[in-house]
Design goal:
alpha/beta, single chain, 16 helices, 2 domains, 43% helix, Rossmann fold, five-stranded parallel sheet, 352 residues
Length: 352
């Protein structure tokens, strides 16, 4: 009897720098053999308008083609594990077909979004598929009991994380600092709470650079029409964080988040984190030593002013936050390792 690597058919939006890709890389680093199926790569072959139609309506020819390709690829891969990261595009009948073809495979679904939030478009695919998977992995603590009520067989919590290959301190040029250097930065989508906080800072004379999506929904006309608010990804994402003196981390109220991926990505680049105060955040960092937190807009403004005026203290907090991330294992590698331990999986499988 010899041992070989467990084969994982990994399905998701596998764009470099995105959290789904990070989780796949973590499994690879842990010794699993990965057979990737990237929905991101699939849609590169088609016009954007067809992609938007498919995601919005979960119908049409591309959805059919995608699901057929999935079944074919899974059959050819003959994996031990099928890991689906946010399976919005997978029809329940596709999962059933793959399970019939792969009767000995373990089917795992991972999701970072709130399953109860209607705007995620989970009603047609994700929700009815919950009982089909052997394991549901979620980062949303509120969903743990809700998944049980929806028929989940096994539920595991996986906290958000950073990618140790990607989110790390990098050398910065003078050109980088000129392009990305600002006092205060926020990277993320629009929500009413976030807009109110940004406006409170601006009213206090503090300008905030915003990078992210859906800001056309802002009520304030200057924010709604601000052409400088764009998406950022890849190495530019790391540079934008690294060149900002203060990086804000607001939590989605719609998604009922108590942490965000940036709760870990920002300190991992040895940058200063100023986030909403939650019990979860306080469990990960010592307030005022490894990160800073605020409970309302008044405290937010006060702390931004303090840390802009105290560079040495700001750098000290960023340095300690970075070391806390490394020491306490806040990367996807260690998060994934713990999840797989709870599922009782190892990277090796006995073969004849």
């Amino acid at each position: 009897m010899k041992k070989g690597k467990q084969k994982v058919f990994f399905v998701g939006h596998l764009e470099y720098g995105f959290t789904c890709h990070s989780r796949m890389v973590a499994m690879q680093d842990l010794g699993y053999e990965i057979i990737p199926f990237s929905t991101f790569e699939f849609f590169q072959n088609y016009p954007t308008i067809l992609k938007k139609f498919t995601y919005k309506f979960l119908a049409g020819p591309l959805l059919t083609i995608l699901n057929r390709k999935l079944i074919k690829a899974a059959k050819e891969a003959k994996p031990d594990i099928v890991w689906v990261d946010k399976g919005t595009l997978l029809l329940p009948k596709t999962i059933k077909r793959m399970q019939k073809l792969l009767p000995h495979a373990l089917f795992i679904h991972h999701n970072t979004d709130d399953i109860m939030l209607g705007q995620h478009n989970f009603k047609k695919t994700v929700l009815p598929s919950i009982p089909l998977f052997d394991v549901q992995v979620t980062s949303n603590t509120f969903n743990l009991e809700e998944l049980k009520d929806l028929g989940a067989k096994q539920i595991v919590h996986m906290e958000l994380a950073y990618n140790h290959h990607f989110h790390k301190p990098i050398p910065l040029t003078d050109a980088d600092r000129r392009k990305w250097g600002v006092d205060v930065s926020y990277i993320g989508h629009w929500e009413p709470f976030t807009e109110a906080a940004i406006l409170a800072l601006r009213e206090a004379g503090i300008n905030v650079r915003i990078l992210g999506g859906t800001w056309k929904m802002a009520q304030d006309e200057t924010l709604k029409n601000d052409s400088s608010i764009t998406y950022v990804k890849g190495e530019d994402y790391i540079k934008a964080i690294s060149c900002s003196k203060i990086n804000l981390c607001f939590l989605s109220k719609k998604n009922r988040n108590v942490t965000a991926a940036r709760s870990f990505e920002i300190p991992a680049t040895k940058s200063f984190l100023l986030a909403e105060r939650t019990d979860a955040h306080l469990s990960y960092y010592k307030e005022g030593e490894e990160a800073e937190f605020f409970g309302n807009n008044e405290e937010l403004v006060r702390k931004v002013k303090f840390y802009l005026a105290n560079e040495e203290k700001r750098r000290e907090v960023a340095e300690k936050g970075y070391h806390r991330c490394e020491k306490s294992g806040y990367s996807d590698y260690y998060r994934m390792q713990e999840v797989l331990r709870q599922i009782n999986l190892t990277s090796e499988v006995a073969t004849a």
